[in-house]
Amino acid sequence: MPVSREEQMLELLKALKAEAPAVESAVVVSSDALPLGSDLEGPLDEDAMCRAVSGLIAATERASADLDRGALQRVYVRADSGYIVVFQVNRDISLACTVMVGAAMEETLARISLCARKLSEVI
């Protein structure tokens, strides 16, 4: 029986978290802030995370355009308790992750990037 797109996305998110243990939560979000799939832990709410990520993307897209930097590819936010990382999957869909403080970011970012590429093949 064929596996649905949603099931494929969830499997990719679970694999990301298994391969990059510093990734605490991951959500695939549409440009209009709708969750398409997620693997969240702790107190995070899927809808709240999608709204926050959508606002972050909109603000950084405007800044990138205003500063003539081209199309947005990824966003990193470092905060006291960790990171928020957003990678574009395609023009209308993003992969957003929360990453724990102290993470080996180079390896973690490489894993998130790979997951985003795999998601682009599913979507």
Question: What's a concise summary of this model?
Answer:
With 123 residues, this protein is α+β, with helices and mostly antiparallel strands.
Please tell me the total number of domains. 1
Strand order of the largest sheet: 2-1-5-4-3
Low-confidence stretches: none
CATH class: Alpha Beta
CATH architecture: 2-Layer Sandwich
What do we call the CATH topology?
Beta-Lactamase
- Outline type: globular
Helix content: 40-55%
- Distance between the ends: 19 Å
Rg calculated over all Cα atoms: 14 Å
* Proportion of residues in extended strands: 25-35%
Helices, by number, come to: 3
How is the topology of this model organized?
Elements lengths: L4 H15 L3 E8 L4 E5 L6 H21 L7 E6 L2 E9 L2 E8 L4 H18 L1
Antiparallel strand pairs: 1-2, 1-5, 3-4, 4-5
Helix pairs in contact: 1-3
